[in-house]
Design goal:
Strand order of the largest sheet: 1-2-3
Largest sheet: 3 strands, antiparallel
Strand content: 15-25%
Helix content: 40-55%
Number of helices: 5
Number of domains: 2
Distance between the termini: 57 Å
Low-confidence stretches: none
Mean pLDDT: 90
Shape: extended
């Protein structure tokens, strides 16, 4: 006759919750510290005034520049006819629909410029070589 033994493990749910909550807090603190260090290093890199650097292992660190546009909804409502506004918006005027309207020729770029804000954003891009 074969005998099997069972082991029972008691898990304290309160302890587990506290432990996991502590892990979340510590991880977020470490992430905030790392983000602050990365922001500081990126600012120093931008201040160099160079476009990119290629590291010995093939990693490229580069300044990437792009423009982000946003629409001033109040100005768009004033600048557009009611029909155009309804055609370009759901609850707000959508950039993709505005672009299509300009491309199609039924909306003038000068009107779009009245309610579109372009924000230039520079970020640091790190590209690791494929291995």
């Amino acid at each position: 006759m074969e005998t099997t033994t069972e082991e029972t493990i008691n898990i304290n749910p309160t302890y587990t919750e506290q432990m996991l909550a502590t892990l979340v807090v510590v991880a977020r603190e470490e992430l905030a510290t790392a983000k602050a260090k990365a922001d500081e290093a990126e600012a120093a890199f931008r201040a160099l005034g160079i476009d990119s650097v290629l590291l010995h292992d093939g990693t490229k660190v580069a300044i990437v520049e792009q423009n982000r546009r946003s629409i001033d909804q109040t100005e768009a409502r004033e600048a557009l006819s009611e029909g155009h506004h309804q055609r370009l918006s759901k609850r707000v005027v959508q950039q993709a629909l505005v672009d299509e309207a300009v491309s199609a020729g039924w909306l003038k770029q000068a009107i779009v410029d009245r309610f579109t804000k372009v924000t230039n954003v520079k970020s640091v891009k790190v590209t690791k070589p494929k291995r």
